[in-house]
Amino acid sequence: MCAVSYLNTVPLVWGMLHGPQADIFDLRFALPSECADQLASGESDIGIVPVIEMQRQKLDYFRGTGIACHGPVRSILLISKVPFEKIRMLATDSGSRTSVMLSRVILAEKYGVEPKVISRVADLAPMLGEADAALLIGDAALRVDPEKLPFESLDLGAEWTTMTGLPMVFAVWAGRKEIIEPRYADAFIESYRYGAAHIDDIVPAESAARGFSEPLIREYLTKHIVFELGQRDYAGMNLYLEHAARLERKAVHV
Fold first, then answer.
1. CA 39 distance to own-chain centroid
2. Whether the Cβ atoms of residue 218 and residue 198 lie closer than 8 Å to each other
3. In terms of domains, do 87 and 64 share one?
4. Nearest in space to 206 (alpha carbons), one of 197, 3, 66, 215
5. To 5 degrees, how large is the angle CA 183–CA 184–CA 187?
6. Beta bridge mates, 175
7. What is the CATH number of the domain that holds 104?
8. Phi then psi dihedrals of residue 139, to 5 deg
9. Which of 45, 58, 95, 113 is most buried as measured by Cβ atoms within 10 A of its Cβ?
10. 181-221 pLDDT per residue, tens
11. 154 CB-contact burial (10 Å; exposed 0-12 / middle 13-18 / buried 19+)
12. Is this model's pTM higher than 0.90 or not?
């Protein structure tokens, strides 16, 4: 089973790493795009999958948990050296797929532009050296303080929730239909709840491991990211997938 290696996954898997769910799954870590590729190849049966890949691969998903936001997400940043409506080339984090599509949707529908997208290693300076704007996700985005940059920036979680009035879901536990069993969904929920109950253990451990301050980690995991998903979250996810499908159909016919 494949889990994402970013900070925002840690509470979801804490029970699998340190709690009662430790013996249920064989857990490996990778970038979001790599988790999606492992499911596509059959290397993994279950993974935390970018929701855009869930749609592309026709996967099913386990309800109850995931990675979402109800406002600013802090870890999905679109940073531009030109006004957003003038972006012609966008360098995107090679580890991302859902957020790449989200940036395309927002730029097309709010700013009326459909830039060329190039995939690059998550390093802001060379990305902006090659393109008009850069998309950073996960830990790479958390290492940047957008208020201190000499560029314009958008928090794409905030942009989506303002634009639609619905949450944004970035990733879910997913797999082939035959693997979707209630006992696994229950284990994912209980693993997260174990993590939520041990946030005071997670914060110092992840601060030491990743080099982030403890206040940043606590605020991010308790205020920005939503892990337990309900009806409104899935409504937001479905709306995002509709926007994405429409944009992909348009690209095919251009």
1. 17
2. no
3. no
4. 215
5. 90
6. 46, 60
7. 3.40.190.10
8. -60, -35
9. 95
10. 999 999 999 999 999 999 999 999 999 999 999 999 999 99
11. buried
12. yes
